[in-house]
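Let's see one such:

===
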Amino acid sequence: MVLFARIGNALRLTAIDALGARLGLVVGMTLADARACHPGLVAIEQDEAADRHWLKRMGQDCFRYTPRIVLVPPDGIGLDITGSAHLFGGERAMVDLAMDRFKALGMAVRGACGPTMEAARALARYADWPATSEPAAIRALPVNALDLGEETTRGFQRAGLKTVGAVAARPMATIAARFGMEAVAAIERLVGEERMPILTLKQQQPLHFERRFADPVTHQDTIAKVLLELMHEAALALEEIGHGGRRFRMELRRSDGATRTLDIATGAPTRDPALVLRLFDERIGALADPLDPGFGYDSILLAVPGTEPVVAAHSAFDAVPGGGEGAGQDVTELIDRLSVRLGPGAIRRLVPCDSHIPERAQLALPAIECAAPTPWPEPPPGEPALRPLLLFDPPQPVEVIAEVPDGPPHRFRWQCKLHEVRLYEGPERIAGEWWRRKGGEQTGKGGLTRDYYRVEDVRGRRFWIFRHGLYAERPDPRWYLHGLFA
């Protein structure tokens, strides 16, 4: 497996796996040459935006070690561990802990510590860490670790300077005259004599708002009034950053030290205090153990642990009351209320999935956790639906009679009842998932071709049936009923 990207006017390899490296593939080779050498190559286009997003997610996860995180695209994360390494048992234990966390995600990770970020990055790339002597390990690094480009690196090698120590031993004036001041700065940063200004990753501060009372409060009306005031404060703070809350948490702290925590979530980011207050009322009403204020609450805390950007919605000039965008908002609020009352997994929404196999083309996910729904493709006016509303999982076997082996069905038996086919449309051929085939042969459920037919029997009932496998793939292909049209 390799990744490729368009570089100039050609598609070139940007990453290869271990097997590809053993077969002689190298980064920078054109995709056409790689496929000519190995026709079975699996090539996937590199998604740079997804890589940056994943690197940022990993960087945010490293805030557990230090508040100063630096992203070094395309594949590096720098941690300024000054003053925090001792909390994890030292530098080596801290590096091992961070690496084990990412290895648990199935990632290949290399780590090291150094006097500067450039030194740590070079040691991680070109040396075995930990080393007996860190300065000696830095000076033993190849000149590629200076990261000065192919031309400058080749110039060092032609001059007989193959290690960082050999370059650092020469007078810096000579290095600057021949290779430029950029080379001098790279050497000084690598050996720790100069530090380069860094731009750290910003850590999003959690939003929380608290109200303390001189005397404990017990009345529900007072609690609701205070919560509404806190929500107005939260709405102003969210408006400043252009976000809306997706998750809200309320903590009721009693005078005897007990704390009751209530969490709610919304299907879309919101800054509406009245909506959040209604959802908390639903949450309180659904509690099996009612709230007991005891001797009263000393303080109430409102936190917004989950936020998302809010996209301004513009209503159309010809909007009809009770329909359009207003109806969609009503459905969202209904989903929020039912999810809070019945539980986050009780209400589900079908989400499109990137698969051409019908039963895998959608997932049923909790509606409260799904993003804004995308419109499903609609058939042309006057045309029947391409897919039925009801799918059987698994598809139900049927007995089919066809005039020719690869022809359409003329009659079929399902649940001991015979159906005469009056009209049919098809076939719609859906190929199997070749990556699920075992041993390169078309065996197993994932490797067979499906021929789908939309049929209507003499009583006007419509079915979606398919032949599982061609006669070239198996001698006795079977038929299945996959769905029913409305």
The CA atoms of residues 235 and 271 lie 5 Å apart. Residues 390-484 form one domain. Confidence is low (pLDDT under 50) at residues 314-325, 439-445.
